[in-house]
Amino acid sequence: MEKVIEDIKTINLGNKCVSFSSSVWSIMSAMGENVTIDFIMGITGGAFFHFWNIDEGDNCDLTMFGPEVMERTFTALGYGYAIIPVKSNQQKCIETVVHSINNNIPVLAQGLLTSPLEYCVISGYSEDGNTAIVAGSHAEAELIYKTNWTESNNPLSIITLEKQDEQPEMDMVLNSTLEWIIKLARKTVFSQYTTKDRITYQNFTNGLIAFKAMIYDLEYDDNFPLNNDEIIQQRCLAFGSDTSSRLEMKRKSGAAFFRQMAEAFPKHKDDLLQIADLYSKVSHLWGRIKDSIPMSFFPLDEYMLMADKKYRLKLAEQIKAAKDIEEYAVEKIQKLLAIRKMN
Question: Quick check: pTM over 0.90?
């Protein structure tokens, strides 16, 4: 027997690091909730987070911020949720998916596809639940059949949702999201330490400090050895498609979120539109930065441009300009939140 919830919408944001946000939007749409992808990108924080590592770029998932991501997201949407680790609950997870799908409620899953952190939507099952049917992904539009899905090597978990009787007030949703944006900008997730020459960090750094780390990395000559074209190629990928293009997309969505909030809150419309304009400028700058960075598959003489310090210093100036505008946007958000809490 095969059961599939038909016509589940999926959206390709071109970035598996926001797969949580896009998967939540797909489920909310299937549940009949009238929410846009930009609203979901806003409340989840998908539009506003940033990680950096010189070898990986921004290739780090939103849910690295831990359980707070889900708590804030589903509270804002008015849904209760339960996270079930699969490895220690295989039969329970199969039964849970079958029950949920039979009641036309899709299931959120982490680690079912290629990446341990990637989220997707289970929209159906076959073989009594031993095969999970996934409603596409960030890379594929067609249904994906995962046989013996509970035996995945990834640290797999499923998240079930249930709509609550009491729904949140939009005032609470906006305040919570403003607090979350500030926290994403200011909170340090990974440990850092400072050396004489530059900031060094373990794994990834995040938030506004991540922009400073990008600038320092561009200025540090040892990161760009002239005699190693493979590393230079990797740097193009990290600064280009793995960071600049993602930030262009995320901040564009952030601007759209604030424009939606401006319509919902006429009292603060001017402030919200000003913040939206700032994020639009940031997105535009990242688009220009993206277009100026050689793609990693370009001919050798083109991507070796990253080894030229004069070029890198110009790139650093552009990143600083984007950072300064984003920092100003965060300050505006802090002031708006303070005003709202006083009223």
Answer: yes
